[in-house]
Each structure stands twice: as structure tokens, then as C-alpha cells.
Amino acid sequence: MLSKISFFLLAAAFTATAQPYDLVLRGGHVIDPKNQVDRVADVAIRDGRIAAVAPGLDVSQARRVIDVSGLYVTPGLVDIHVHVFPGLENGGILGGASSVFPDQVGPRMATTTMVDAGTAGWRNFARYRRDIIDQSRIRVLAMINITGVGMPNFDVEQNPYDLDPEATAKVAKAHKDVVVGIKTAHWRPPTFLSVEKAVEAGNLAGVPVMVDFGYFLPERPYQEMVSRILRPGDMSTHFYRWPAPLMDENGKVAEYLHAARKRGVKFDVGHGSGSFHFRLAEPVVRQGFWPDSISTDLHVSSMNSGMIDILSLMSKFMAMGVPLQEVVRMSTTNPATQINRPELGQIAVGAEADVVVLRLEKGKFGFTDARGGRIEGAERLTCDMTIRAGRVMFDYNGRAGAPWRELKIRYPDR
Ligand SMILES: [Zn+2]
Fold first, then answer.
1. Which domains does the chain have, with CATH numbers?
2. pLDDT at 3 over 90
3. Which residues contact 292 (CB under 8 A, 6 or more apart)?
4. Per-residue model confidence (pLDDT) at position 102
5. Ligand 1 centroid vs 302 CA: distance in angstroms?
């Protein structure tokens, strides 16, 4: 009988021999905050899953080896605030701020998981699941809007009779494989009603809530929402939107924010086309109050204005002094944990192979906020390659290709 020690020696010898990997990313600098990996290593993929992460893997039996030296390899990015349910009644959310199809944009933004933030509500969610979520190669999850019809325009989100926690929780539970939260947004009346109803639905369905607090009114102070109404794990998105009361009269990060964070409330970027201002972000970030999660609030008008994509946002935070390793954490394991999907946003052996290759460009770059405010930075992240469940979905430099003269394929004759 094998002793325990000889069994382990055998296992070690086995893993050291050549493995029939499908794909190996060789020589990149792997950053995987969840597993404390921050070094040069090879990443091997087999059957759509991570097969090995280690320096100097034997790749003689690998079907394809791609040299990514000089580049960074990170988990596929997890963007927990996007709008990807196109074709919603009345022309999509908020006129020009309309949804995009996940597969049109996700791969080139290094995003392998997207969470639609309340574009649909319980009345129309099943249709979006069928038409978008189930048809996309990018992993699409969703937070259901506490308003039954979601956000075809601002006005329908003001209907107090359509805020239905029971119906919302029922749909959330029926689709619990893809529904990860409840969303409320754009509420205008001087009450906390939509936030309270969303929390009620969150309690019934056992999921967190994400709040776009809309307008700042003295009758419903933001401080009270994050201090009292939101539960641990709930998320305040559009965190750096002027005029949120994030600083005290001395320009210091307000004490109630530290207390809310300690209580477990999460602060999400949700940049969008109107919800991120350096006037708030730079002083707050420079004082060390960083976001828990970097998200885009992706839609047609945000991607074509100062937001651009999640990599631009990561670069913006680096320009404000946040280290690369931390912006990767805020775009991978942190958001995955916030939506209770801790298996995502990491490169672990056995996990689904959602991996991206990023280039860190050095130079002089400019970044703008939602009002055209500008800062400069010396580094910018761009997407070189996106792999979702082991499949190359975006390949900016043709690394997965072969010189065309060597291709062993038969071309059809005309
Ligand atoms: Zn949004």
C-alpha cells in the first residue's frame, strides 16, 4: 500500500510531466488578488477550466502556447453595473443612454462577467433572460429593478404602486442562478420609499441591494441611507457623484462613511455619463477612501464619453494613486464577492477559465470625468486578449493566430 508521502511524491511527479493542455499563456505577470498571486507565471487551460498556474510549466504536450511576456494576466473583469438589455420599451433606458449587447463590447473591455443593474424589473425580466442572458457568451447576471418595468424612462420609476417587494423577490428566486441583487434608481420623491422597498425585496430574496440614490434632498439625507437603511453587503453606486456629502467642512472624508464601511456597506463607482466627478473623487481617493468595486454604468452614452470602459476607470484610479494590484482587486474578486459569487474573479485551478491579458502602457495620458474635468496619468491599461471559459473571444494582436503560410486548413475552392 502506498504511504501518504509516496502518494504525494507520485502526484508531484505526475504534475511535473507534460500535460495535454488546450492553451497555455506563458510568461505573463499574473495578478490574482484573491489567491495572493503577484508574479511571473504560466497559466494553463484545459476543457474550459484552469488546469495549472505556476512558473515554467512543461508545455511540450500543449495544443497551443501563447507568449504573453511583458504583459499582465488577470482574472476576467467583473463589472457589476452595466446596462445590457437592449430594446426595452420606449427605446431603452433614458433616451440616449440605451443598452448595448453584452458580446458586442464585453470582450474588448476585458470583461467576462457583467451584471445588468436594474434595466429590467419583475414584469419583463423573463424575456431578457431568454433573449439576452441565455444567448450571450459573456456571463451575464442581473439585479432586478424594484420597479416592475425596470427603467425605460425616469417617469415610470416614480410610480409608488409599482414598487413590489413580493413580486420582485419571487422573480429573483425563480431565476436565482442569474439574479444576484435588487436595484433601485432615479427615485425623485423626498422619501426613502424605493430604497426601503428594495431592501425589503432583498430580505425576501436573500440578495444584496444596489442603490443609485438619484437626487440629494434634505428630507432624505444620503448619510441616513448608508448609516441606517442599507444592510451590510448592500451597495451605494455612483459613489463619486457631485454633490454627494462625502467630506466634512475641513475637506476630510466624512466620519459616517468610515462607520458605514465598517458596518459592511459597499461603495461602488458606477461612473456612467453623469455620475463621476474628480472634484469629489480625487480628494476622497487621495485620502485613502477607495471604492470597494470599480464598475462602469456601461451604456451607449457613457462608453462614448469620459467613461470609455472599465480599463479606463482602473487607469483613472491609478492616476489618483491607487496601485495596479488594488485596481485589479476592485475589478475582480471584490465585485465577485459583493454579488455572492466568490468563485468568480480569480484564477484558481478547477475554476472556469475566465482570464484576460492586459498591457500597461507608459506615457502621458489624459482622463476626463462626467463634466469634462481632466487629470493626467503616466499609465494606461488596455486589453490585449480576453478568454472566457477557455475560449479566446478577443485577440488584439493576433497572438492566437499562426503565420498564414503555415496554416494547415483546407480552403474551399470556388
Ligand atoms: Zn446605471
1. 76-346 (3.20.20.140)
2. no
3. 235, 266, 267, 268, 330, 334, 335, 338
4. 96
5. 10
